[in-house]
Amino acid sequence: MTRRRRRKDAGAVTAELVLAAPLALLLVLLGVQSAVWAHAQHVAQAVTGQALAAARVQDGTAARGRAEAAAVLNQVGRRVLLDPRIVVDRSATTARVELSGYAQTVVPGFHLPVHAAADGPVERLTP
């Protein structure tokens, strides 16, 4: 009787493994993808903060903000933040920095967008 039962169950573990292993691997890769996206988001926030600091000082310019953003991006996030687009605007009273791009892809087909923005008043001396 045990032989019959064993023959009916033969290959059941293989079939379960064929289904479970790819699903488990996909779940692990989705976890890694979410961590990479979160890191890219933090990099984008750091870049916009540094660019804003450079653009809003008393003698700052939008070009100085863009240069600072590019320098920080090269130091910290070139591999994790793909296709970054940096926009720096500075008026007489405010400065604004926006950065958008995509997080590095771990799971094929996942192109998660990353966006960060920062704005603040321009520093100026008041008598």
Short synopsis of the structure:
The chain has 127 residues and is an alpha+beta fold. 54% of the residues lie in helices and 23% in strands. It has a single domain (2-121), classed as 2-Layer Sandwich (Pantoate--beta-alanine Ligase, Chain: A,domain 2).
Summarize the topology:
Blueprint: H1 2-9, H2 12-56, H3 62-76, E1 81-90, E2 94-103, E3 113-121
Antiparallel strand pairs: 1-2, 2-3
Helix pairs in contact: 2-3
The separation of the N and C termini measures: 99 Å
Outline type:
rod-shaped
Measured as a percent range, the helix fraction is 40-55%
Total of domains: 1
Give the beta-strand count.
3
Radius of gyration: 25 Å
Q: Sheet with the most strands?
A: 3 strands, antiparallel
Give the topology string: H per helix, E per strand.
HHHEEE
By CATH, the architecture is named 2-Layer Sandwich
CATH class: Alpha Beta
Indicate the proportion of strand residues. Answer: 15-25%
Kindly report the average pLDDT value: 89
- Low-confidence spans: pLDDT under 50, at least 5 residues? none
Structural class: alpha+beta
* Spatial arrangement of strands, main beta sheet: 1-2-3
CATH topology annotation: Pantoate--beta-alanine Ligase, Chain: A,domain 2
Number of helices: 3
